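URGENT: need a sanity check before tomorrow's submission.

F., can you look over the Cytochrome c, class I record below? I want to be sure the sequence and structure line up before it goes out.
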Amino acid sequence: MIRSSILMIAIHRLQLPILCVLATAVAWPQAPANPPKMVPRPEGAEIHMPKGFVIEEFATGFTRPRFMALGPGGEVLLSDFTPNGSVWVLSGKQQKKLLENLDRPYGIAFSKEFLYVAETTSLKRYPYDAKTMTAGAGQEIVSMNGMGAGHVTRTVLFNRKGDKLYLAVGSSANVVTGDPEMRAAISRYNPDGSGHEIVASGLRNPVGLRAYPGTDQIWATVEERDGLGDDLVPDYFTHIRQGGFYGWPYSYLGSNLDPRITEEHKDLVARAIVPDVILQPHTAVLDFLFYTGKQFPAEYRNGAFLANHGSSGRAQRLGYSITFVPFKNGKPAGPARDFATGWMLAPDKAEVWGRPVGLLEMPDGSLLLSDDGGKKVWRISYRAN
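Structure tokens as predicted:
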């Protein structure tokens, strides 16, 4: 893996001319289909984290637990991402289905008296009663009819005032032209679904979506394209510029052309943005959060935890972990480093026993992690002694 390591270092330092030469001089092999095989937790298997951190089961009984949100009363809401999906509410020892018969619900968010739920083909809002933890009838505010194929996660986020919502939608295929403008893009709306505008485009699959603490600056994690070999194209983590174009499908990491696209769009490629943090290729970061709590050591404050769902099209497996990106003065202060590992038995083995998905910071500063491979939610806490 020496060649891979050199390539990744060059990318991280943004030495893009080197990458261009490699991309044009080498006939990149197709990455093999290499999906994980989910197995029960092997005897003796452990999650490895820095000293002082503890991980334990928080809740079980789900099918594909994905995104989480904190309710007005401190309750946890969780989307269960299946074709006949649901939204759960967890409070103390109580665990119940709040909504059922949903089409692959993923992103969830609260604003004022409403709970917003992003299904694959529809964004709906529901009147929500925090005292009884019940929801009224849903109202569709954004239709995504006809967008049920390709990337099917939908992430929703509100700004601090609650007067604008953001909706992230991935592309219809790995590499394709002619998608509707909502796809491979981040959109912005009024809370009732009116006033649609495109914030940023050229984002193959922007799944993680958060604002930096104390600001409305949006950051996103993006799953990049497949089919150019094990080491291309790296996924990435970046701040989102209004009107920004991030390359897909014509180029990647700025102006590096995708050899499979014959249409020329020199104007778009010329302004394609180089992302802030280059991640490992094909690791599929499905969520991240900026840590603002006080339970963890100070070095983690305002830094980003990333949930790596794990590769499924790479010969040597990557991901199945949580990584951490330190921040200083609102900007990344170093590359991603391992924080929690162990769900993957080995890079050359198919067997894994967990797949990190969603992250949620609790009022006490602990973190919840959803795991759709293990069908559970974990709690991560820190104990100084």
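My own read: Residues 2-28+52-382 form a domain with the Neuraminidase fold (CATH 2.120.10.30). Residues 1-29 have pLDDT under 50 and may be disordered. If you see anything odd, call me.
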